[in-house]
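User: what does the whole thing look like in 3D?
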Amino acid sequence: MNSVVTSNIRRSIGDILVATGRLSSADSSVIMEYQRQHQIQFGDAALALKLLTKDDIDFALARQFDYTYLGQEDTSLSPDLVAAYKPFGAICENLRAVRSQLMLRWFNTDPLRKVLAIVSPAKGDGRSFISANLAIVFAQQGQRTLLLDADLRTAPGTGQKVLFKLGKSAGLSGILAGRAALEVAASPVPSLPGLTVLPTGAVPPNPQELLGRPEFGQLLGSVAQRFDVIIIDTPAGGDYADAEIIAARAGAGVMLARKNKSLLPDVTRLAGRLQEGGVTLVGSVLNDS
Ligand SMILES: Nc1ncnc2c1ncn2[C@@H]1O[C@H](COP(=O)(O)OP(=O)(O)OP(=O)(O)O)[C@@H](O)[C@H]1O
Ligand SMILES: [Mg+2]
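Assistant: Here's the predicted 3D structure for the full assembly of 289 residues, as structure tokens:
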């Protein structure tokens, strides 16, 4: 397991904010002088002088502790990736609690357990949203994380390719058809160290047949050697058998339901089908919004 590397020599909050263009060197000097006079922390001095906001200080603290997230001005990813943009919000608190449970119940129990499929009965339950943000919180914890988009039913303009604003067209379907290599199809996310995304690639006419090929199992075996955590986005489990095939290959899944939308009988039926297929349901998430 990758551990977060911490350094004894941390950059100061002022240096981080100057380096990222949030503070001028002149203002940094003014804050340090005020800090020295009043014997207070740099952040408190900056707030007292109204030269920085609480957001700026949270940002710098996160950088100081190797905890990566993005400022609102960074538009390289979709704003739906709340774990990247608003890591201190309620959704992300909940996702970190889910992460802890999954570490305890699954990933830490056996070194071979690395893959989890995120499943739910219906379209729009938030599987893509939750799998993307969950993958980000795992990467923020220092895990080498792969987010694999196996929703080969995805409509154009949706899915992980759009959330992560990926330019290239290669992806999972190309690998399964033997036309692309993982190195070409997968994209590391430069602004989120530790996270790699494998988009769907061109939507094929025969998703189920492709996912049923031995190549999918081989792909999971080979990515398990390079990553600590592999999160798989799936299509609606009530509509297609794809999710069952994917979760059976993964060995484990997390059941997602959306508040005020998902129907309990649909969730129970899908859970039953998955368990019959030998899938361990490690946990469940109630998507709140
Ligand atoms: N917790 C949430 N907070 C805010 N918006 C959310 C949340 N969960 C999902 N959404 C929004 O709901 C919509 C549907 O979510 P998403 O695309 O993740 O669902 P899905 O289950 O992957 O659907 P599909 O069947 O189309 O793949 C998206 O616009 C997403 O941004
Ligand atoms: Mg989706």
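In plain terms: Residues 13-64 form one domain. The first strand starts at residue 115 and ends at 119.
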